[in-house]
Amino acid sequence: MKQNRLLMFAALLLAPLAALNAVDMERHLELFEPANGEKLINYHPHFQWRGPEMTLDYQPECEIQIATEPAFEKVLVTDVIGGGMNRFYSMLSLTEKRDYFWRVRIKKPEVGPWSETFRFTIVAPEKQFVITKGSDNTTVLETLRKAAAIGKAGHTVEVVFEKGDYTLGPVEDRFAFRVDHVPGFRIEGNGSSITMAGKSFFAEVASSQNVELRQLTMKWTVPGHVMMEVTKVFQDTREIEAAILPQYSEKDLEVYWPVGGGNTFFIKVDPKYPGKHLNYLKSGTPRRSISEGVYRIGPIGEKEFHDWQRGDRVAATCYKRGGFIQNHDNDKLVLKDITLVDAPSAMSGGGGRNDKVAYLNVAVVPDPRLPDSPIAGHASSEGGRIAAWIEHCDFNMLADDNYNTGYFFDYELLQQLDAQTLTMKIEPWDELIFPGDRLRFMDQKNNTGLGEAIAVTVAETGVKNQVKVTLDRKMPQLPASTIASNNQGTQRYVYRNNSQIGGRAHGLKFKGYGALIENNVFQNITGIGIYLGCAEGDRKARSADMVTVRHNTIALCGWYSIEAGQVAARSERLRIEDNLIRDAKKAGISLRNVHGAIVRGNTFESVTSYFAPTDTYPSVVLKDCTDIQVSGEVLKDKRVRSMPVTIP
Hints:
The chain is mainly beta. 5% of the residues lie in helices and 46% in strands.
């Protein structure tokens, strides 16, 4: 099944796109998924069509309609998706088992003709299991595991919870149950809540298709962090004394802040701005017990030991506790109407290839049992070649990064046979190279880019962990220290109408090809609000290509509000338009090694006086960039210095 999916992906990627432009607007868009006549158990199908090729100046917007009859007189869903996207997920659940019809057309810059109309049918799963209200832990676990086993045998399956409160665990496994190699699996929560006891995740979902989890609230018996209060500060020895707040358990401190290290997430939290983190302690900072629940901490490094005061609140938290789900190598995984209460670990993610993941109306919220806590859990760390769609989500006061989108593998050059043919080393843990992959070549010895090419053919050589790759263009003589990265780890990514309040590091990190990031709020972020093209370690960096960032509000970020590009990885074709940047610290927008960008209509304002009025910052900073168009700035912040500042 996985191989078929990979072949389908490669065929789609290489298929000729409709060459639409201002003069050739009469051609219809070509519908692709769901196929005409396809039967689905998904209440939220993934819609995809072969659309126009994007350029910096031409990123068309497409209108989609979904109806219950072919004349489209009873339209259920109508929406417009911009940024050159040719895919869609609907917030509306298509729960009625019947025929549906869909079509698309170009809406902007000029209205084009409607595509052909496709029909698909929502059908009942082959097997259904019902968990009755009041079922105990054993019954719930047995039902979920039996349903997963039936799914692995090749059946589509639905598990329906009668509305109620349920408890799961503790179980002697990392996951309460596993959905593995299943053609279709749906959990219908009907507004139920599930409380996880112990350290297990609710589920692992791997190598499956058409998985959907709906209308659930997930809770945990143990909070996802321990909150402490500073009781003393010792300036002469650079130490602090801190006591665990009474509503937290002392035994959990060793989980979240183990002796000898692992306390990366020991963070001082801003009392005025929820979720904003003011300081932290490095891993390995010494601590010793003074009395029950009270600890002497330090000496603290000189850089970190500043501004500590009696009464400061600090949170100890890490990924030791289980979370909601982990997904690996799935095709079409949807979370809809899910609430996670103080999720103590990653809400989703893991690694491998994950195609078409959608989070629709997912909320991460603080635990109401802990009114003084501004921590609501960790974010998802997406892995693999994904095409995520995230909409109407509410991420409150996360303790870590939000979506780290894009997972890349690096392949070692073994031999350059000629200008267009290479042999590459692929370790067993690497993602395979597929025809159509865009490969970025880099000299890891001196951290310099060497160029890009697209893989046309990929063949086994008969030698373990080795493939021969034919490229679409000639490459210069490559040094022995060359590595190639799969620069399309994330494609056609959509993140819109979401809110993130708080975050230890950055808001949204994106690396890959094709993204629409619009109508979101990023507030009280310690690092960068929107980060395009991210560094990975000392010698590797990733790029962002063909990205639209528009109509976002980015407020009170500790670094740049929007940053794009890395020295070692060229980013290109970016549109940063009509964003509201409020109370920036270092710069509104920073571009580095970006070649081709439109930056226009962005507003800069200050309303909180969070940063000193004597501090100034440039609206745009450029370094090693070409073809950057900046215009239409609106300045409402006296601290801002207008127009681009170029630094050497």
